Queue: 3 jobs
Job 1
Amino acid sequence: MFETIFTFVWGIFAALEFYYMRIPFLCFTFFITQLCKAQQINLDSATVTKNIPTNTVNAQKSKFKVKGLIIPVTLVAYGLIAQGNNGLAKLDNSTRNSIVSNHPDYKTKIDNFLQFSPALAVYGLNFIGVKGKNNFRDRTIIYAISTIISTAIVKPIKHISNVPRPNGSGYNSFPSGHTTTAFAAAEFLRKEYKEVSVWYGVAGYVAAAATGALRVYKNRHWVSDVVAGAGFGILSTKLAYWIYAPIKRKIFKDKTVNAMMMPYYQSGSGGISIVYNFRK
């Protein structure tokens, strides 16, 4: 019983806020290059490089905050250390043995759907009129980047680590893919709605923690798999927001169109004339 409670507590802890790093490294390089270029701000055809408070704020928002890495990196470190630490390995085994002895035939498919629920909530909330941080295009690209990063990190580690699943169904247990997806989605929901209400993020992380707990409860993963998966998921989404900031500035520049429409009629013919001024 203690081991089961411990598993769930670890999931809740993860809710509160690389071996295969090619894609993140390339994205990092791209970001640094674009950040240097972004220091010059064009405003009405004049170049302004300083003393612009608004743009200074925007630049600060695009910076990656190192302190935000503490919790996810700690979670990943725990999972990695557990692979070679006898004490943490015993915790994995005792938790698994306790669950199997008490609920040997426990089965559910809820976790297969629950892992996506925080991300679906972002679009659902927008659909009913509760606006988040980004528009449809931006949030969709961000979530896609997060998915690419998490897949690029987790999939190779699963095959290379060769950790057996508790139920003996394979050798790709570490880290938990379901948990990674769930926590990436939970951080996505938190980032989009943290300025609206903190409870949206809390709900997302509760769903993610429940997903991780179910993976252990179904005897599909060890505790260390779930803890590391939570860390990888949070990291993936944090990186996605960081990476997308310069991409948006470079590709999707803000554009303004001032237009005036006037009907006309002359010599038996008519129509509408449009005069517009297009500015980036």
Note: Confidence is low (pLDDT under 50) at residues 1-62.
Job 2
Amino acid sequence: MRELVIFVVMLACAAAHGRPVPVTVDEPYIELHTGPGRGYPVFHVVDRGERIEVLGQRTTWFRVRTVRGKKGWVHQEQIEQTLRADGSAVDIERLDLESFSKRRFEMGVLGGDYGGANVISVYGAYALSPHLSTELSVSQGLGSFSDSQFVNLNVVHQLFPERRLSPTFTLGTGVIRTQPRATLVATEDRTDQTAHVGVGVRAYVTRAFVFRLEYKSYVVFTSRDDNEEIDEWKAGFSFFL
């Protein structure tokens, strides 16, 4: 994922080591709220030229401490009106639709139906370009007669990455392990290779969240004479980094 600029990277590193990030107010003043939201009252004002330390972040709100030890919450818009130690302006990249089209990493959870069985999948993706990404997914299927675990490697093409709603096309391969449920006749577990194609829709929701709906058609290359063809429908949410 594209990072929230160098400042946010500095903030994350500082938080990991317990060190605050110092900035200087460059506008007439900034307001400190008692909590991370506009509904919380303003209890203190920091004037231009004064120094504050950024202690942490919650969505678009930053927890800060003044030189007199007062701690409060400042909105992102006002943090952007401060200067770093080197005199450069703080510029925080906003998580929006444009950020989604420039994402690098994506992770998500989807659930649905795989050939009549309930299925849940988790995946991670890396964007090679705004249009093309690779995905690695792990899924668990729970059926009436057997359970399945499968791993897939996909190549996904997103037609309109700059739009809020965009169709997608998927091509991939994988491995599926099928475990029949206990019956009167003992049946061995089996592992087979698969190939699949799919279509779907991605809808940007807000900030770093995306809704996904997809259909895939699988061919399972079994050791028997006939291969299996299985349809899968899934929907879920993902977030990008």
Note: The radius of gyration is 25 Å.
Job 3
Amino acid sequence: MNFCAIDFGHTNYKIAYIENKDIVSIKRYSYQENAILDELNILFKNFKCSKILCASVLNYKVIDSIVSSLPAEMKSILKFFNSSDCLKYINLAYKNDVYKLGIDRALGLVSASTKTNKDLIVIDAGTATSIDYLDLNRNHIGGIILPGKKIIDSIFYEMLNFDFFEEDFFKNIFSKNTRSCIENGSLISAYASIDTVLDRMISTKDVDVEIFLTGGNFREVIDNCNYSMKHVESLLFDGLVVLDGS
């Protein structure tokens, strides 16, 4: 059986192609660079998928506008999941407002829970970086969200009275222009700080922990952190497959 899954993220959307439960490829698209409706129509016609599993962190009005423009035959095979669907597999820390926990975070935990019998941490490095802890009894202890580098850069960019992208960027702790000072600082703030979060989580629990890493900015995490971690690009999509029971 062929089917697809779509991750509607804040900055990009990703499409996974799945054959016999195996994810054979993942493609990333920018909302700005591609016409999403055209891409979805091509997907539907060429791959001949029997269903399309979906996860979205977009505002419901935005996702509704996308879905409402799709042909009826495609809308009929869309299947959206939310964080409450994950309660069948894990006990989420957001007790009375589960819907406020991003589906991307919940799916990452569901997926990782099928890959280890230890306590685990999932780091999802996207527009922001979420870090969540799940114990071996599948209880979500909670997590932290850090701003990604682009978020920090954008705040400074709005504050300045000149375009700092006109300056050259030099990666050096002794930065000699405003752009380099800001970007080197934002890189440290966004990714080197992850070690501090992991130190505190792991020392508090004091057990053996396996760390899973996903998201488009995974390389920045690897380059700036000292912990050993397993990169799984398909983590969210693996979670969708688990929830669907396919």
Note: The chain has a mean pLDDT of 91.
